[in-house]
């Protein structure tokens, strides 16, 4: 397993959440849901995308977890949040989460971030999420993911 700071931080968070030993490093990139699904031999929908949005009114970050087979509808997301949102820049993502785009994990963030989970994630028995780098992932049930992140389940997919 790669031992970069981000990967170690996620592994420690998973251990603390009772999900230790679930991370794995893959030989190929899992930067996209399609790459991750191919590397894991699972459906693209089982891959959880971690997308960071910025609230311009407060400069706050919002982490949206969505199935790899869907797209987040920014209009629906704005309606759920009650204000406009914009896709976050790579710099903003790294500052707020401690991760680079392509390896944003839903746990082990450097600071608390409001987390929303699209209902589509709940359709699967088991899902895979980034574990701190573009080549590391961990598995969980959707219920474990909701509990681990403290996320709110919402409908924001197209």
UniProtKB/TrEMBL annotation:
GO molecular-function terms, A-Z: aminoacyl-tRNA deacylase activity
YbaK/aminoacyl-tRNA synthetase-associated domain residues: 29-147
Pfam families, per the entry: tRNA_edit
Superkingdom field: Bacteria
Entry-linked InterPro entries: YbaK/aa-tRNA-synt-asso_dom_sf, YbaK/aa-tRNA-synth-assoc-dom
Protein name: Prolyl-tRNA editing enzyme YbaK/EbsC (Cys-tRNA(Pro) deacylase)
Organism: Actinomycetospora corticicola
Source species taxonomy: Bacteria, Bacillati, Actinomycetota, Actinomycetes, Pseudonocardiales
